[in-house]
């Protein structure tokens, strides 16, 4: 079966004046235009291609790999807006359409949006949607507290940053727990902090509890070495100054320097922390 919106491994069937015809095991074929034909190939060999509909709504293959495929989320830029909808750059010659009905708010040319790509069953076209909550569900969670997860940042709210969790769930990172600059569309690891009774997910961008001590201590020690062995910050310093330098909370910083102090790697003085010479 040739799947639109996906990478397909297809057999090279024959060559023509317009390109190569590729086929699957069910007898379906699709054209790979000349501009995408590799310099060397053999009839009967397999080739990996992405399949979608061309400008004339015909299935077509390309060796280009788009920025997003069917059933995925991605940050994409709007390159054109017309009476049909918004068109996004996704790495292919024909842009990805986001119809007006699939826009959470009217999209603007030049702006970037997180979208979901899916195959519209009515038109058999690949389209994008900015109404991403429709494609996320927390009904059947296969997660536990402490589990490591992959995140895509989708938008900022009064509470914090909404994130896509493992490409299928919705989560929230609270603003007061963000200690580095993040933006919409950023991808990053995280871990499950809390699973609420209604299956809402609270997400942390850093390991929880005692698991944060070792990474924090290592980061403090690394920056301390970069600064020549002295940093004018300690456990009484302003939280914002600590956050600006280390991208961590004051609580995490204090635990980190506590670890380093117990391991006799630093001294804590009135003018800050100092590297302890190795004997």
Keywords:
OB fold (Dihydrolipoamide Acetyltransferase, E2P); 279 residues; mainly beta; 5-stranded antiparallel β-sheet
Low-confidence region ranges = none
Strands ordered across the widest β-sheet: 3-2-1-4-5
Helix % is 10-25%
| The level-1 CATH class of the largest domain | Mainly Alpha
How many domains, as an integer? 4
Number of strands: 18
| Gross CATH architecture of the largest domain | Orthogonal Bundle
Q: What sequence of helices (H) and strands (E) makes up the elements?
A: EEEEEEEEEEEEEEEHEHHEE
CATH superfamily of the largest domain: Winged helix-like DNA-binding domain superfamily/Winged helix DNA-binding domain
End-to-end CA span: 68 Å
Q: So how many helices?
A: 3
Relative strand content: 35-45%
The rough form would be described as: elongated
In CATH, the topology of the largest domain is named: Arc Repressor Mutant, subunit A
Mean pLDDT: 91
Alpha carbon gyration radius? 25 Å
Q: Report the biggest beta sheet as strand number plus sense, adding barrel if it closes.
A: 5 strands, antiparallel
Class computed from helices, strands and strand pairing:
mainly beta
Explain how this protein is built.
There is one protein chain. This protein has 279 residues and is mainly beta. It folds into four domains: 7-62, Nucleic acid-binding proteins (OB fold (Dihydrolipoamide Acetyltransferase, E2P), Beta Barrel); 72-133, OB fold (Dihydrolipoamide Acetyltransferase, E2P) (Beta Barrel), CATH 2.40.50.140; 148-205, OB fold (Dihydrolipoamide Acetyltransferase, E2P) (Beta Barrel); 210-275, Arc Repressor Mutant, subunit A (Orthogonal Bundle), CATH 1.10.10. The protein is built from three helices and 18 strands. A hairpin with a 3-residue loop joins strand 1 (7-15) and strand 2 (19-23). The longest helix is centred in the C-terminal third of the chain and has 14 residues, at 213-226. The protein is elongated, with a radius of gyration of 25 Å. The N and C termini lie far apart (68 Å). The model has no long low-confidence stretch (mean pLDDT 91).
């Amino acid at each position: 079966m040739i799947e639109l919106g996906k990478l397909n491994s297809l057999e090279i069937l024959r060559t023509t004046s317009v390109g190569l015809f590729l086929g699957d095991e069910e007898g379906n074929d699709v054209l790979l235009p000349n501009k995408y034909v590799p310099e060397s190939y053999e009839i009967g060999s397999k080739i990996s291609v992405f399949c979608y509909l061309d400008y004339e709504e015909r299935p077509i293959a390309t060796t280009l790999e788009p920025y997003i495929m069917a059933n995925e989320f991605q940050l994409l830029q709007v390159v054109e807006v017309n009476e049909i909808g918004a068109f996004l750059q996704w790495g292919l010659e024909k842009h990805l359409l986001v119809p007006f009905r699939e826009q959470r708010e009217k999209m603007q040319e030049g702006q970037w949006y997180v979208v979901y790509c899916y195959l519209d069953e009515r038109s058999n076209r690949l389209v994008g949607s900015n109404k991403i909550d429709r494609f996320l569900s927390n009904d059947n969670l296969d997660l536990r507290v402490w589990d490591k997860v992959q995140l895509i940042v989708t938008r900022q709210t009064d509470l914090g940053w909404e994130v896509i969790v493992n490409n299928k769930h919705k989560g929230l990172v609270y603003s007061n727990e963000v200690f580095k600059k993040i933006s919409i569309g950023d991808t990053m690891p995280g871990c499950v902090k809390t699973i609420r009774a209604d299956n809402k997910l609270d997400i942390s961008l850093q390991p929880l509890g005692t698991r944060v001590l070792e990474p924090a201590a290592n980061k403090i020690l690394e920056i301390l070495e970069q600064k020549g062995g002295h940093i004018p910050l300690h456990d009484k310093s302003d939280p914002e100054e600590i956050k600006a330098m280390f991208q961590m909370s004051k609580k995490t910083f204090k635990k980190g320097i506590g670890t380093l102090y117990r391991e006799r790697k630093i001294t804590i003085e009135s003018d800050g922390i100092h590297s302890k010479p190795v004997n």
